[in-house]
Amino acid sequence: MSEHESEAQPAIEPAIPSTTDEVSSTTRRTLLKAGVAAVAITGFPYVKASDKLVLRYLGTAVNQDKAIGEKFKADTGIEIQYIPVTTDEVTKRAVTAPNSFDLIDTEYFSLKKIIPTGNLLGIDVKRIKNADKITTLFTKGEVNGKKVGDQGTAPKKVMFLEGPKSKKFSATPTQYMTLIPTVYNADTLGIRPDLIKRPITSWSELLNPEFKGKAAILNIPSIGIMDAAMVVEAMGIYKYPDKGNMTKKEIDLTIKTLIEAKKNGQFRSLWKDFNESVNLMASGEVVIQSMWSPAVTAVRTKGIACTFQPLKEGYRAWASGFGVPSTLKGKQSDAVYEFINWFLDGWAGAYLNRQGYYSAVLETAKANMEPYEWAYWMEGKPAEKDIKSPNGDLIEKAGKVRDGGSYEQRLGSIACWNAVMDENEYMVKKWNEFVAA
Amino acid sequence: MSATTPTAKTSAPAARRAGPAAWLQAAPLGLVFLLFFIVPLVLILAVSFWDATEYELIPAFTPKNYIAIFEGCGQFGDLCVTLKTYVSTLKFCFLAWIFTLGIGFTVAYFLAFHVRTVAMQTVLFLLCTIPFWTSNVIRMISWIPLLGRNGLVNDMLISLRLVSQPQEWLLFSSFSVVLAFIHLFTIFMIVPIFNSMMRIDRALLEAALDAGATPWQTLWNVIVPLSRTGIIIGSIFVITIVMGDFVTIGVMGGQQIASVGKIIQVQTSYLQFPLAAANAVILLAMVLMIIWALTRLVDIRKEL
How many CA atoms are closer than 13 Å to the CA of A344, on its beta-carbon side? Predict the structure, then answer.
């Protein structure tokens, strides 16, 4: 063996592990890209030796705010350890590794997959102080007494369980909730008004050839298919009896429309992580795309014009909430209930409202917000003063009105909800065809 | 691969003695392999024949996952998704391989034959490994601001008046994917090729020169055949990584380009494990065939 070989040998060594990194790097990528959340994780090392309680909070990076964890720790001494993963990964872990978290923050549509496993416990509403104040959107599917669209997995369909350990949803309210709602919103398209320079009023604009190579759609099948369905309806191609539960034929039609657009070069990119959508929009790679409200806020805080454009066909709504794994016991269980109660108590709600989300218990959140803030975010009134994000960045100058108006206007215009369909497996398969096309 | 070769080497003399001590010595590694390599592979194979619903796996023996993968593949004209995906993955594999081989061979050649002192060789070699100080993903993402519509490259091209419109094919395209592969994986070619080249007896080069060979003849008839082992090992590295990749193709291709790895990833995230397992088995068979073909070209065990 020559002298040089012994130099070369160690260099191969570090190279080999990095090939296996390929496999695990989705999680790592999520970690990396979820800047804030990644900081939160390194900021809260899990120290087993100490007597302190640590709650492992599984959810998506969007909902895992460092400030919320810090405030809760300051208030109660209980530490929150964030585990940020993608929407699909949350479901996967809930089904396959229910012992890997103490608290789950998941979307309501995932419940159709999680509840039949028995991995989540029905949450006893008697232990939740503000349970009766949770907005009627969840319990009855109403906003101020007015019914909203319930196509898809509307929360009211999966809100209650028949018993604490039941694997079946109850159609009528019971004492056991599947999830305690944390945040929800009505999503629409995000646009760059400075680059589009004309009013956008319909979902059909996403596939308008005018924006060839400058549009994006999100690559999470359960959500992307709903955006696509809104577009298909808006273009007048087809009217679905229930967008949230398509037949195979309807799925074929929807995917065919997407594939045609993709082949014509309509999409600049697809995105999976909310930070990707921020970068696409902020860099000008994309001028119109599926977007989430905090992503719009994030683009705006960079000083770039971005509108969460209300559209005449209505919104695609989503909601997520806290669930409790059925294996949780004793002190950990008490701490989880304490966290949920704290979360509904107003501070966190106000924080989320200021990000452009909506909180589950409105009156406690209102008590924690300035009247001018409440008027801007919830009542759709022009801002009396400059509106700032929870971090103190300027979001909107005084005098402006929130995109989509008041709570009632916005959530009252919900057209459908993110969904898991009966034909989900087929849908995912067809979605893969779209990605491969 | 590299882990199995040393075992084979050490177990060869041991087999001749075949005493219980030798078996005992081989046992720990054997057990590790059994536990972390053979068992998971067998499980994947087993699961690929299972049935599943949205939330549970049902042990069974059904070929339906394999049938689902190749559904519609018999028709002429339009290729089915699976074949299309394999064609696209193989295309990337070939492009990445040819370019990393070209660049890797050149760099290794320069390091081995043009750099005279061992100290300088060491320094330059370490220089090649510096990119490994940061993660794959960061090295990949750094291309985005460079190649984007308003990125540095486009800005430069426009300010030099070489183009009037920003060039869209720079990013989220096959081009950017191949570029990232080359950037990420050339080192896997450099290391083994350099290694082989350093073992070539310099006297052979002088002999070639004395016999009247031109530099090109020396390169083609002496150096390339003697670097064969390095070339094959490097190729195995690059091909296996690219065949299974989904992150690079995802990030650099704007999530719009399909790869076999990506399909498996989407399926696992939707809890379609049997389908994903069936895909993995096919991919594995494919990669093993490529490696088998490569090892026909050179007996790695003998040459190492």
Answer: 22
Contact state of A14 with B256 under an 8 Å Cβ cutoff = no
Q: What is the pLDDT of residues B266-293, one digit of tens each?
A: 888 778 889 899 999 999 999 999 999 9
A224 touches chain B (CB under 8 A): no
Query: Region B48-73: what's the mean pLDDT?
Result: 84
Q: Which of residues 54-83 of B touch A (CB under 8 A)?
A: 54-56, 68, 81
With beta carbons less than 8 A apart as the criterion, state whether A127 and A322 touch.
no
Q: Which amino acid is at A309?
A: Q
Structure token pair of residue B16: 């001749």
For chain B, the domains span: 79-303
What distance in Å separates residue A217's CA from the closest CA in chain B?
Answer: 10
Residue A22 domain flag = no
Task: Kindly determine whether residue B118 and residue A4, on different chains, have CB atoms separated by under 8 Å.
Answer: yes
Query: Which CATH number characterizes residue A235's domain?
Result: 3.40.190.10
Query: Buried b / exposed e across B263-298, counting CB within 10 Å, b at 16+?
Result: bbbbbbbbbbbbbbbbbbbbbeeebeebbeebeeeb
Q: Is residue A55 part of a domain?
A: yes
Q: Read off the pLDDT of residues A272-291 as tens digits, 9 standing for 90 and up.
A: 877 889 999 999 999 999 99
Dump pLDDT digits (tens) for A149-179: 889 999 999 999 998 888 999 988 999 999 9
Residues of B in contact with A2 (CB under 8 A): 198-199
CATH class of segment(s) B79-303: mainly alpha
Query: A181 and A264: one domain?
Result: no
pLDDT of A348 above 70: yes
8 A C-beta contact, residue A120 and residue A165: no
pLDDT at B18: 66
| Tally of domains in chain A | 2
Distance from CA of A135 to the nearest CA of B (A): 30
pLDDT band at B303, cuts 50/70/90? Answer: low
User: Does residue A382 lie in a domain region?
Assistant: no
Is A16 a member of any domain? no
User: CB–CB of B56 and A432 under 8 A?
Assistant: no
Same domain, A281 and A419: yes
Residue A87: which domain range?
Answer: 32-185+318-367
pLDDT at A9 > cutoff 60: no
Which of A85, A115, A425, A427 to mutate: most B Cβ within 10 Å? A425
Same domain, A206 and A306: yes
Query: What is the pLDDT at residue A6?
Result: 36
Do A248 and A262 belong to one domain? yes
Residues A73 and A167 both lie in one domain: yes
Answer whether B265 sits within 8 Å of A2, measured CB to CB: no
Shortest CA distance to B140 belongs to which of B256, B253, B248, B261?
B248
Do the chains contact at A425 and B272, CB–CB below 8 Å? Answer: yes
Task: Give B144's contacts in chain A (Cβ within 8 Å).
Answer: 279
For residues A207 and A88, membership in a common domain is answered with no
Q: Which of A4, A153, A256 to mutate to test the interface with B (most CBs of B within 10 A)?
A: A4
Q: Do A204 and A72 share a structural domain?
A: no
Contact yes or no for A317/A184 (Cβ under 8 A): yes
Tell which phi-psi region holds residue A383, choosing left (phi > 0), alpha (psi between -120 and 50) or beta.
beta
Average of pLDDT values for B196-222? 91
Residues of A in contact with B195 (CB under 8 A): 4-5, 8-9
Q: What is the mean pLDDT of chain A?
A: 85
Q: Is A112 in the same domain as A36?
A: yes
